[in-house]
Amino acid sequence: MPHMLGPIESEPFRFTLNTDGRPHTRENILAVGTLLVGIVAFVLGFIVSAHAVATALGIIGFAGGLFSQYVSVTTPQRSLIIMGVVGSFVGAVLGIAHGGFS
pLDDT digit string (tens) for 24-40? Predict the structure, then answer.
């Protein structure tokens, strides 16, 4: 049991969306963009006077998120995309509840 006596060397924590070792620039941009649009739509959904912008961003983020999910390659990308899609959906629903496009 020589491995029990020596120090354990572990890799430092490193966040990456490319868990398969290959670069996926387009897919990473789509994943992060979906997350950002979802966050903005979610926040604007709670502001009553920003209902039109929240609705528009929510719809754009939801549709873009579905496309991003379709072309995604790795699991971390899919995780970010789902968070963005849910945020976009909630932002769109809150925007519609506060008046939608009118």
Answer: 899 999 999 999 999 99
DSSP state of 50: G
> Domain segments of the chain: what residues?
35-102
Helices H / strands E in the chain, number of each: 4, 0
Which contacts qualify for 27-31: CB closer than 8 Å, 24 or more apart?
Answer: 27/68, 27/71, 27/72, 27/73, 27/74, 27/77, 28/77, 30/64, 30/67, 30/68, 30/71, 30/72, 30/81, 31/68, 31/72, 31/77, 31/78, 31/80, 31/81, 31/84
Amino acid at 76: P
Q: Could you read off the pLDDT of 63-77 as tens digits, one per residue?
A: 999 999 999 999 999
Note the pTM of the prediction, 2 decimals: 0.84
